[in-house]
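Q: I have 124 residues here and want to know how they pack in 3D. Can you give me a structure?
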Amino acid sequence: MTATIYHNPNCGTSRNVLALLRQAGEAPRVIEYLKTPPTRDEIRRLAADAGLPLREAMRQKGTPYAELGLDDPSLSDEQLLDAIEAHPILLNRPFVVTDKGTRLCRPSDVVLQIMDNPPGEPAS
């Protein structure tokens, strides 16, 4: 399995997910998305592949979400993408992409759904 994690090392959930991947023997590609933000198209694809409306892929706590008025339901996805592009912290984390799918791994154990050999299960 090839795994990519959009990671924030300051986030406990993100660190837990990364640890779960490594416990399963994975050497995931780690993208610190605050240092290397995904493109608009990548953000769109992550949300769509995870089955989430873009708004549900956004983080509110500890971000400028409220100050920017992003709770306004009339805002388009393009306007939300503008905000995420300007403030990458607005993208929720961690997103994980594997051969089995894409998930926003909140809570951490959501990652088990898209792992070939989750920790604690016999290897297939």
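Q: Anything worth noting?
A: The chain is about 25% helix and 15% strand. The chain has a mean pLDDT of 94.
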